[in-house]
Every structure is written in structure tokens, then in C-alpha cells.
Design goal:
six-stranded parallel beta sheet, 17% strand, elongated, alpha/beta
């Protein structure tokens, strides 16, 4: 495996490939004396010293430990220092002999240029690109896959023993599901598949006589003893007995005193109060007219009804005919009632007065409706009484993707952004999400976003100190507020998390590094397009993959029960979409115009269902189990 990059994502990805998948890795990175391009990476620690001192002092009073955690460098990773991934550098890194190449530079043009060169050097190479532009990424995928097919003379996907696919990913897209899930349910152990968010939940051993809820399925039995069963800080506990991955029903029933890890679907657990006011993309009818105008229209309607009833009583006409004459009088169309009774004449005069009142009300209604439609693309303010929502700080590339994901889950959101021309402002207007313009570090901005009634604060700006200061201020307003802050450096994120947890032990705090969240998805793509994600279980890892049944003897022609191998793999769901209409990557959300795709996966498969060659299934597997299914044999390693 060859990894080329100029920021923390490349280093994290190399460590993921080496530590989780046990692959031989070559890392191509700029020379150490070259500054990292990411502006906040190097200065986050120095600029945050004063804020960290405040956190450490608070933690000391609470009896906590705010010392940073030393990072671990990946072992047995070959390093090639180069400023750019030129043809000579790629050749020195061994691209011609590599299985997969990841190009994760922060510059899209650098990644595309290197991908074109690498495809020419090795047509059988699996390439993973980091691009933010989705549409451009689709065109690049098609271009590089077509080039590989022409160079090898073998169409892609014919089962010839190699996979020369091209996968385009964005760190924003891959980190967004975990950030959204962390904001909603407090964990980043999630897998996104076909528009659904699935999370792995650790549960304590059930009391005697109680039956534990297995969720969608039981993924693992935890160690007999665990220092942190909830896994709140993401640490791995060894325990006296290691975890048992993918146990069968007999093992689960026989296990006593051991917690379990179950799979369940993510749902919003926040307060529903006033959530519907900001959920609609299309403005409701009531929003076209102000409350005063609606009362005026109601009063006019009541006046018309009263006049029609009075005319019926005075003249003895049929109610419908009386209503018709009343409307004619109001609109000034009828002849004067000169020869009618006095009562009829009085009612006609009153109808004329109502008609005079009706004209300005109708004009106001038209102007308000036009103004509402004209301002439909303008920024909305948080509605009165809003509560139980998510306050999202920053509408950059990460914040925009998280905002889209939260709205797909129908979560009420209020955004805070200081730049009126930010990348995600157009998305906020399209989704009709309330936005507060202003510097989040200034007093009154978070209050305008209703932070005192919010469910979660997501601090996702590109400046670490801004995120940290916003979280500290929000905690001074709401000590029990759930907060998730994005920090560029992984070690810095760990130090901030531990200190905030010590200072506010009763509040849920998460600090996330985008590189840490995105690396598993990039590593999965390098292992093959089938990998949807990975969930750690203590010191082991479970992989989730979408696999074509054809050609896999352990699955094809077998029932779901017979295909299950305890400790290795387990079939979770069946993709019922037609083979010609299947989306190539189940880890992405369905297109907005294709909402039916979210129902293509069937999770309650009967054990007697026979897997056919044309089926595609979602399964959970260990690293070795997936390698066996896909025909990859681990190399024998000695002395490692």
C-alpha cells in the first residue's frame, strides 16, 4: 500500500493500514522541515495555551488530570520524503508493484495529476483519491477505470483476480456521519450504509432473569472485565478475557457476566419541542401571511357570513341567494336597492363598507405573499420557542456536509457563521435552515442561536481556538450541554477531551479529529470497494462490507444460517435493488431524487433464505474472515 499526502490524514491512514489491516505501507510525505499547509495544525497548541490553562485549572479543582496524551507513530512504515508526487517519486515508492495507492493531498489538482500518472505506471493499481467536488470525482472515477480497462484488455469487475477500481472520497463526507452521530447519540462508532446510520452500542450484562435486547444483531461479547465498558473516551481495554466477535446464539445465551456489543439504527433522541418549525424545506401556507393579516382576513370572512345571515332574515331569501347578493354588494357589482326595504338598504351600505375594507387587506395579502416567496432564498432567523435543536458552528466543507446529513435525518439545526460568503451558505438557504451571522466568540451570538435551549453544540469551524472558546463559553451558559468540537490535531483533541471531561464530569463531551474519523473509510477503500466501515471492539476491529455473492463458495447457494461462521463473518442484510440499478457504493447516501433507495436493504432476513449468485449482501466480518471471503490470503510474517 502506498499513501501520499501532506497533512495528518496521510499519517493516520498509514497507521490504520499498518495497525488494523497489517499491510506493508509506504508513506510519501513532504520533508520534515517543510511546514504543514493546514494553517491551524501547527499553531493550535500555541494559540490555545491560555484556554488550556483555564481548562487544566478547572480540572485540577475537580480532581482530574488534564495532561495531554502522547501520540503513537506507526511502526514498520517506509517513508519517502518528497515535496510532490512526481513520476519519479511514485516509481521510488513502488507504485508499479503496489496493490493500492491513496492520494490524500489537500489540493485536488495535485491528487488528480498524480492519479493520472499512477494509472499509466500501473493499470492494475487500485486508486483512492481525496476530492471534495463530487461531480468532478465521478468523472475522474469513470476516466481512470476506463483507462485501466483499455490498458489491461479486461473489463473492470469480471473477476479476473485484481481490482483496478478508482474510488473518490472526501474527508468531509466520510467524517460527517460520525460527527452527526456523535451529536445525536454521543458515539462515533457508526457505519453509514444506503442512507442509514448504524451504531455499535456496548451494553452491560443483563440482570438475572432479564433478556437483553439484541438490536439488529449481536456483534460481540466483551471481555470478562473491562475498565471502561462504555468506551467513552474511545480507549481500548484489554480485560482478562478477550472479546468474542460475531458469536452465535448459543454463545450469547451461555455468556454470563459479559457485556455485549449490538448493532442498532441511529435515531434522534433530542427534545422534539418546536422541531417542526425549522424542518420544512417548502414554506407552509401559514408562513405566507403574518398573524395580523390572517386575523384581518378571518374578520372579513366573519363579516360576510354575518351580513348574509342578516339578509336572509330581513328579506326571507334562500341563504345561498342571500350570500350571493351580499358578495355582489361587497364587490360593488349589484344595483342600488332604492326600492327595497330599509333593512335591505342598510345591509347594502354595510356591505359596501366591508368591500372598502376588503381591498387593502387583499392588497396586503398579495404583497406579503410575494415578499415571502422573494425571501425564500434568504437566510432565516431562529424561530421563537425553538428548542431541542443542534447548534452548528461553521459552514465550511466539513460543516456543510454535516448540515446536509443532519437534515437528511430530519434534525432541527441552527447554524452560526461569520462569513456571509461561506461555502455552506447556499446549502443553508436551500434547506431553509436558520442562520445567525456573526463571530461566535462575541457575546450574544450563541444566545441568538438559542444555545440555552439546544440539545447539542457542534463546533466545526476551521480554527481550533475558535471551536474551543465557543465550547467553553457555551458550557458557562449551559454546564450540562452536549458538545462536540472539531480539532485538527489528534493528540490535541485527546487532551482537550480528557480535560473537559474532568472539568464537567456530568456533561457529555466529544472532541473529534477529522483525520481520525476519515482514515478508516480511506483505508477501507484501499482494501476494496466492498468495505463500508470499521467499528473497534476493545483491541479488535469488525469490518462491514457489501459483497457480491457470485463466486464466493462460502455464500453462494447457502442459506443465511449456513453461511454464518461464528467468529469470522455474518450476513446482516440483503440488497433487493435490481442488479442493473444498484448504486456502486452503499456507504454513500441515496441521491435526493432517489428516496426509494433507502428501502432497498432488508435487515430481517429469514435464516432459511438461500443466497443466490446475483445477490449482494451486507455482512460483518473480522479482518481475517473478510480476507478469506474475498480470496485475499494474509502473508506469513515472522518476527513482526
Amino acid at each position: 500500500m502506498v499513501v501520499c499526502g501532506d497533512d495528518g490524514l496521510a499519517q493516520r491512514l498509514a497507521a490504520e493500514l499498518r495497525g488494523v489491516y497489517e499491510e506493508q505501507v509506504t508513506l510519501v510525505a513532504p520533508p520534515s522541515e517543510r511546514p504543514v499547509p493546514q494553517p491551524v495544525a501547527g499553531r493550535a497548541r500555541a494559540a490555545s495555551a491560555a484556554l488550556l490553562d483555564r481548562m487544566v485549572n478547572a480540572a485540577s479543582r475537580a480532581g482530574g488530570n488534564g495532561a495531554p496524551v502522547n501520540g503513537r507513530s506507526p511502526g514498520n512504515v517506509r517513508l519517502v520524503e518528497a515535496a510532490e508526487p512526481s513520476e519519479a517519486v511514485l516509481a521510488e515508492a513502488g507504485v508499479e508493484r503496489a496493490t493500492a495507492l491513496a492520494l490524500v493531498y489537500d489540493d485536488d489538482e495535485t491528487n488528480i495529476r498524480a492519479a493520472l500518472t499512477a494509472r499509466r505506471l500501473n493499470p492494475r493499481l487500485r486508486i483512492v483519491l481525496r476530492l471534495y467536488n463530487r461531480r468532478l470525482g465521478q468523472h475522474i472515477e469513470e476516466l481512470l477505470d476506463q483507462a485501466a480497462a483499455l490498458a489491461t484488455g479486461t473489463p473492470h469487475g469480471t473477476g479476473t483476480g485484481f481490482d483496478a477500481s478508482t474510488t473518490v472520497l472526501s474527508d468531509a463526507d466520510t467524517a460527517a456521519p460520525a460527527l452527526a452521530a456523535t451529536a445525536l447519540v454521543g458515539t462515533s462508532k457508526v457505519v453509514q450504509t444506503d442512507g442509514l446510520l448504524l451504531r455499535a452500542v456496548e451494553r452491560t450484562p443483563p440482570a438475572p432473569g432479564q433478556v437483553a435486547d439484541p438490536g439488529l444483531c449481536t456483534l460481540a461479547l466483551l471481555s470478562a472485565t473491562s475498565s471502561d465498558p462504555a468506551g467513552a473516551d474511545g480507549s481500548e481495554s484489554s480485560g482478562e478475557r478477550g472479546p468474542r466477535l460475531l458469536p452465535d446464539e448459543q454463545e450469547v445465551a451461555a455468556a454470563t457476566g459479559r457485556g455485549t456489543v449490538v448493532l442498532e439504527q441511529v435515531s434522534y433522541a433530542g427534545a422534539p419541542r418546536s422541531a417542526g418549525r425549522s424542518a420544512g424545506v417548502v414554506p407552509p401556507i401559514s408562513s405566507l401571511f403574518s398573524r395580523r393579516l390572517r386575523w384581518s382576513l378571518a374578520g372579513l370572512v366573519g363579516a360576510v357570513v354575518a351580513l348574509a345571515i342578516a339578509l336572509t332574515v330581513v328579506t326571507g331569501d334562500h341563504p345561498l341567494h342571500a350570500t350571493y347578493l351580499t358578495l355582489l354588494d361587497i364587490l360593488g357589482i349589484d344595483d342600488p336597492a332604492t326600492n327595497a326595504s330599509v333593512g335591505r338598504q342598510i345591509l347594502q351600505l354595510l356591505s359596501a363598507v366591508v368591500g372598502l375594507l376588503l381591498l387593502p387587506v387583499l392588497l396586503a395579502a398579495v404583497l406579503e405573499a410575494l415578499g415571502t416567496f422573494r425571501s425564500a432564498s434568504a437566510l432565516r432567523r431562529p424561530p421563537r420557542g425553538l428548542g431541542g435543536h443542534v447548534v452548528l458552528l461553521g459552514l465550511g466543507k466539513i460543516g456543510t456536509r454535516v448540515l446536509t446529513r443532519l437534515r437528511e435525518l430530519h434534525i432541527p439545526v441552527v447554524c452560526v457563521e461569520g462569513d456571509p460568503e461561506a461555502r455552506g451558505m447556499a446549502t443553508a438557504r436551500r434547506l431553509r435552515v436558520p442562520v445567525v451571522l456573526g463571530d461566535v466568540t462575541q457575546e450574544g451570538v450563541l444566545e441568538a442561536a438559542k444555545i440555552h435551549r439546544a440539545h447539542t453544540l457542534l463546533a466545526l469551524t476551521s480554527v481550533d481556538t475558535t471551536n474551543l472558546e465557543a465550547v467553553l463559553y457555551a458550557r458557562s451558559v449551559r454546564p450540562d450541554l452536549r458538545v462536540v468540537l472539531r480539532l485538527y490535531d489528534d493528540d490535541f483533541a485527546a487532551a482537550v477531551y480528557r480535560t473537559l471531561r474532568a472539568a464537567h464530569p456530568r456533561a457529555l463531551t466529544r472532541s473529534r479529529s477529522v483525520t481520525h474519523l476519515a482514515a478508516p473509510a480511506f483505508a477501507g477503500a484501499m482494501m476494496g470497494r466492498q468495505v463500508l466501515g470499521a467499528i473497534p471492539v476493545e483491541r479488535r476491529v469488525l469490518l462491514f462490507a457489501a459483497v457480491e455473492v457470485r463466486g464466493i463458495r462460502q455464500l453462494e447457494g447457502r442459506t443465511v444460517a449456513d453461511a454464518f461462521r461464528a467468529g469470522s463473518w455474518r450476513v446482516l442484510a440483503l440488497d433487493t435493488a435490481d442488479p442493473g440499478e444498484r448504486r456502486p457504493d452503499l456507504a454513500t447516501s441515496p441521491a435526493p431524487t432517489d428516496r426509494s433507495a433507502a428501502s432497498d436493504l432488508v435487515w430481517d432476513l429469514p435464516p432459511t433464505y438461500v443466497l443466490r449468485a446475483e445477490d449482494r449482501v451486507v455482512l460483518a466480518a473480522t479482518r481475517r474472515g473478510l480476507a478469506e471471503l474475498l480470496g485475499r490470503r494474509s502473508r506469513e510474517r515472522t518476527g513482526a
